[in-house]
């Protein structure tokens, strides 16, 4: 038996080969094994091993510790055992106690190795171990034996737990972040499936936060977010979960009845708690929010699906001004928009769009002064797709940039072709709409320069039309771009005037040549005196600023007469012509200006 212990001290793999335990005459055999002394050198060797190990054998179908090192004793002593405990009797009642059934199962089987994690105790005082059982070859001994090794992973586990806690918390507000919120939803989905507990998700978006952040600075913006979080917490019920998903977007998980009205009441409660202005230093800031709600249903497969449903509802809430509940048609419409985006991208790449041209007619002479170029898309399977449908998709996806550049090139190229047909430059210009999104994402000046250079047209043959929304978003930046365009001798028109929010001060400073009166004011003029008053005011403003005027949506001779009497310069609409293909537009010009 002494030879066996010597082998253990030098090589654990050889212990079973050389060890000889007498045929089981127990407990005498066990007592002899336990009473056999180990040399100091042998014990010193196993004590130098960096991990806790013990040699365990089966006695009377019970695991019994034959030997252990000091590291193993240190672990055991932390559980109330004396360091000089008898290994066979006392140590089995210590840290090894939870392991004994596992060790017994291992020794009764034929596995060579088994590794697993073990937790001893709960809460702060709990310990975590990585355990490995390695069977020793039986050799001449009929007693099954194994080496048990323990690695204390408590610090690692606690570190991972702390890191996970940090990763699942928003650093500014301390609220759960998107990942933690998704986990909460997944648990609620389990409860929904097993117990039928209904719940809903609310998404809350601070609609003016970006402007507030720009105006008061990021530190004050952080303080604002913290204040908003506190107010939202005050509006929660017991059991509701509030999270900050990203930036100025919060989310709430709440248990509700099957009736969605409870979710909508909670949404209105969230809006109400933010109705009072928030004080930041000397400022009082009113925060508006859009709230979208989505109920859990059997068709929802993942947490992100439910969050996305609430986002659909929130998008509608931004337009409606009140809380909205997700509807199945929302996701259908979103899928259709994505499908349309894909097809539009291909249509642009394959040059499958074309322009139609609506004449701009001088009201005094009746001559055609120019044409407005309008994008048209004839889908090979779906037929004609309205610009009202595909232009918003282009703006949302960023496709408006290549689409806008294409429209500039195609319009100027068409006008150059007309000049070649006529044999000389025609007394007509081409108007092209430029989206506010393109103004912000593209170098519009270089796009205009490239279109003019490619077509060979002079700058005064081109007119750029923009809406008031372009100016509102970035008045100083847009003013700089418009001046650069004006320096190219290109005319600039403000489209849909009167429907936006442009400042008259900026209107006076910008190099605008034409004000286009929106059709919503022109069309009802014959029945609505207020519309006449608005059109007269716009015409007077334009005259005072030295700008020409164009009326949109003219569809009757009576409107023409009314506009002439008010002093409007140019008109366009179905009374003169619908948007025409290139050849028909050229023919219309030749016939009307003959």
UniProtKB/TrEMBL annotation:
Pfam family, one: GGDEF
Ranges for domain EAL: 337-593
PROSITE patterns on file: EAL (PS50883), GGDEF (PS50887)
Highest taxon of source: Bacteria
Transmembrane spans: none
Location of the GGDEF domain: 197-330
SUPFAM superfamilies: EAL domain-like, Nucleotide cyclase
Protein name: GGDEF-domain containing protein
